Description:
This protein has ten helices and eleven strands. Strands 1, 2, 3, 4, 5, 6 and 11 form a seven-stranded mixed β-sheet that branches. The protein has helices at 61-73, 95-110, 117-132, 140-145, 180-185, 193-212, 215-221, 228-231, 238-247, 269-284; strands spanning 3-12, 22-38, 43-47, 78-84, 148-154, 157-162, 168-174, 252-255, 262-266, 290-296, 303-304. The site of adenosine-5'-diphosphate (ADP) has 18 residues, from helix 1, helix 2 and helix 3.
Amino acid sequence: MDQIRVHSPATVSNVVCGFDCLGFALSEPYDDITLRLIDEPIIKIRHNDSYGLPTDPDKNVAGVTLRAMLDAVDEPFGFDVEITKGIKPGSGIGSSAASACSAVVAANELLERRFSKLELIEFAMAGEMLASGSRHADNLAPCIYGGFVLVRSSQPLDVIELDHPPLFATVLHPQIEIKTSEARAILPREVPLAAAVRNWSNLGAFVAALSKGDTELMSRAMRDEIVEPARSSLIPGFDDVVQAGLGAGAVGGGISGSGPSMFMISASREAADGVAAAMSEVYSRTGIEFNTYVSAIDPDGVRVV
Length: 305
Ligand code: ADP
């Protein structure tokens, strides 16, 4: 086999009380990528979309990720990469992670699965470093594994796939830009101990609720006293959207990644559709353009098509 095509899902990271450690995968939207093995040690990138992302492999997340993998392989071949992005860059639903993960999973298939999933995430962290300046895995891990994944540590890498009931997500993506650097700069440098205790209590409870399928407990646990109060000020209409989602029956939700997307989790597709309608109604009053997605939690992660 010298050519392969994969789909790579969008992901929600920083899941409320799980800042920098908890994420999940969405069935939609997703990126589509085709990789060909070539017998020159170079990486060529083409885009079939209108996002204007760099084709220089040193400036493209997929290129940097594949370079990290080729350095580990140390053999004289390279890759021709064709990317059709379904996930808008800078949306806060893991666009850069989707490119990194699709590239390494596709390359690994062409290399007859030489590397483990954990090793693929290590390579993909080079791509996240390019996109955001830090080697974080909380979008990469759910993108590769699917479902809900907890990153206990990124160095050394330790990821835990979590049991969860069938759940559905509604994402509202306002068409505004929030720079990752701005979203980082606004974070508190110090955290009151009482707030930290409440956050880790909630995260423990949320993980337990996922494994029990207890949506009432999930709902009580989906609170964040540390990051959300600071970052939500960057997203116009945040409080109203969350209230509308909860009012329409969502289990809970918050900021996706570092924004501007917001997400809500629901127990059924019907509920998630109702939540989308309620969030859209409220958001249309802001005058800001937006997209919404309603999606199952994706169980598989990157998949060969
Ligand atoms: P998201 O939260 O949607 O992943 P990020 O801010 O993490 O968005 O990543 C998007 C940044 O990475 C943009 O600055 C974009 O130009 C850059 N980038 C470079 N290559 C890619 C790629 N293949 N896919 C997505 N983003 C890329």
